[in-house]
Design brief:
The structure is a single chain. Strand 9 and strand 10 form a beta hairpin. The two termini are about 25 Å apart. Helix content is about 25%, strand content about 25%. It is an alpha+beta fold. Strands 1-2-6-10-9-8-7 form a 7-stranded mixed sheet, sandwiched between helices.
Length: about 220
């Protein structure tokens, strides 16, 4: 599928180290701002690591068994690793509506729509960062994270969705500062898909995301 609006859609087949991803995002963000590069949706996997957002509390980093990277995005600590789809979204909001809140809500709705393709009734919860759903035993759990940065109205960072990661790796942090609820994955929900299938769902629902930020 070719994304509309001349937006590049990149899927990295190999693990991408976090510093390389961050420098790549920053370079593309600068190129989009100057008109020298296309907007970008970049789907990838990272090796096991933790990132610290601008609101991170050092007390919420419980282990340093994996590398820890500071990042300019909003939010607190997150985990990234194999089996998790990370999506970096570099879009020029000046070409659309310069509404940060609307952009975040549209990003959440895009992930929720992609999860719905597999029968998952996911949702955003007011006052609680991320994407949430119920586990088979009825417990509320986090299945995706959202974290963005906007530089001169061009976005960076984006989302992550747990397809089939090692959920034990989340125990090294308080994910996004929320300790009352567990994390889950599509695999834990009994949905056995690969990253490629989730990518297809993201592409299928991408038009709705663009429409939402165009009409914000």
């Amino acid at each position: 599928m070719n994304p509309p609006h001349d937006i590049e859609w990149r899927i990295s087949p190999d693990m991408v180290e976090y510093p390389a991803a961050l420098s790549g995002m920053e370079a593309r963000n600068a190129a989009v701002r100057t008109g020298d590069g296309k907007e970008l949706i970049w789907l990838l996997e990272h090796p096991p690591l933790y990132t610290a957002g601008t609101s991170s509390d050092p007390a919420e980093l419980l282990s340093q068994s994996f590398p820890v990277y500071d990042t300019g995005r909003g939010g607190r600590h997150t985990y990234h690793g194999p089996g998790q789809r990370v999506g970096y979204v570099i879009l020029d909001l000046k070409k659309r509506n310069s509404d940060v809140r609307a952009f975040v809500h549209a990003l959440e709705a895009w992930v929720i729509a992609a999860l719905a393709e597999f029968g998952v009734s996911a949702r955003a919860v007011e006052g609680r960062v991320g994407i949430w759903c119920n586990t088979p035993d009825g417990q509320e759990a986090k299945i995706g994270a959202i974290g963005i940065r906007i530089r001169k109205w061009v976005t960076m960072h984006g989302f992550s969705v747990n397809i089939d990661p090692d959920l034990g790796h989340f125990s090294g942090i308080v994910p996004c500062g929320i300790s009352e609820f567990p994390v889950t994955s599509l695999a834990q929900l009994g949905i056995a898909i690969g990253l490629e299938e989730f990518d297809d769902a993201l592409q299928k629902t991408f038009g709705g995301f663009l429409k939402a930020i165009d009409q914000a």
